[in-house]
Amino acid sequence: MRQKRDRMGWRLDDGGSDARADGVMRPRAKPGDVLPKPAPAFFVPYATPEIEESIYVDLAALCGMHAPKPAGRIYSITFTHDGEEWTATVGERLRGFYYRYDRRRGEASGIYVRSAVVLAIFAGDPFQVVTDQGIGGDVGSKWANPFYVGQLSSVTYFSTSS
């Protein structure tokens, strides 16, 4: 039986993974997957470099926390909330991914949900995320500000190199 391949040479199978013609198996990407990118140097969205440190301290105080040292500042997290996988990345809109069953087609399809811009993420038990919801007006977010993160999947810290 001949195996199907896509135009890039990936061998397609029903096992939930892909293999290139070289035989190396790689996990199949889901619609919600985002390719990893290097973390930038620390910044606070909407803030000038002169005042971003003081704004960051104020955002930490809003969460009832102290601002962490530069090596402990979080750039991005992935977490699960109500069965949806969410990604909070500083400077970007909060993104969610979930499956919805389509009865007509008989299959599941992924849907993105976009919301407020993430201003800061603070480690703790639980982690807390601060967005621009209510700070710069109502941006239409269903999330409280700041909000708590329950089931954490991954954490990416800001780059500390200049």
Verbal overview:
- The model is unreliable at 11-26 (pLDDT under 50).
- The strands form 2 sheets. Strands 9-8-7-6-5-4-10 form a 7-stranded antiparallel β-sheet.
- Helices cover 7% and strands 39% of the residues.
- It contains 1 helix and 10 strands; from the N terminus they run βββαβββββββ.
- By secondary structure, the chain is mostly beta strands.
- Strand 2 and strand 3 (25-27) form a beta hairpin.
- The protein has 2 domains: 1-29, no CATH class; 31-157, no CATH class.
Helix-strand blueprint:
Elements (H helix, E strand, L loop, with lengths): L10 E2 L4 E3 L5 E3 L24 H11 L11 E8 L2 E6 L3 E10 L4 E16 L4 E5 L15 E3 L1 E7 L5
Antiparallel strand pairs: 1-2, 2-3, 4-5, 4-10, 5-6, 6-7, 7-8, 8-9
Low-confidence stretches: 11-26
Give a count of the beta strands, DSSP E runs of length 2 or more. 10
* Termini gap: 54 Å
Protein structure class = mainly beta
Shape: globular
Percentage of residues in helical conformation: under 10%
**Tally of distinct domains:** 2
- Give me the Rg, rounded: 19 Å
Output the number of helix runs. 1
Main sheet: strand order = 9-8-7-6-5-4-10
- Element order: H for helix, E for strand: EEEHEEEEEEE
In what range is the share of β-strand residues?
A: 35-45%
**What is the average of the pLDDT values?**
78
